[in-house]
Specification:
Blueprint: H1 3-21, H2 28-32, H3 34-50, H4 64-78, H5 90-94, H6 101-117, H7 122-133, H8 136-139
Bound molecules: protoporphyrin IX containing FE.
Amino acid sequence: MTVVRWMMVLMLGGTLVACASSPEPKTLWDRLGGEPAVVVVVDDFIATVAADPVINQRFARTDMPKLKKLLVEQICEATGGGCKYTGRTMRESHRGQKITVAEFNAMGGDMFKTLEKFKVPQREKDELMALLGSMSPEIVGQ
Ligand code: HEM
């Protein structure tokens, strides 16, 4: 083998080792299981919200199938799934509702219950809850 060939073999080998030792980190969307899993989670979450006496009256006139679709899109976009959220901003859609911290926390509790039910691992549960929690300034007290 010529020196050039040996160099090519070594370079290729190095690249393969580099790829094997530092795989592309998976997005939260992928780790959650992508669209099929998130659709199931959002369905269960909305059913839990609809049965939650602390907040269900808030949704008496809401188009729930549309809300579910928008939530999946929103989670997809925010977790790196590459979707485009087509709904209104959190400030726009909650403006005038005067949502309280207690109501926001009740909804967080409903999501937590759903994630526990589907045995979503701790890390993914923490990341998703933190992501939703970070939206509170746009939702609470508007
Ligand atoms: C992190 C928490 C929350 C997220 C991610 C969220 C997300 C959303 C989204 C995506 C929409 C649809 C926007 C659109 O129509 O374009 C929406 C609407 C709505 N949200 Fe929230 N929401 C949260 C918390 C809450 C809380 C705590 C309440 C009340 C207890 C609430 C009550 C509503 C209601 C009533 C609507 C429908 C508004 C309408 O029909 O005009 N949301 N929310």
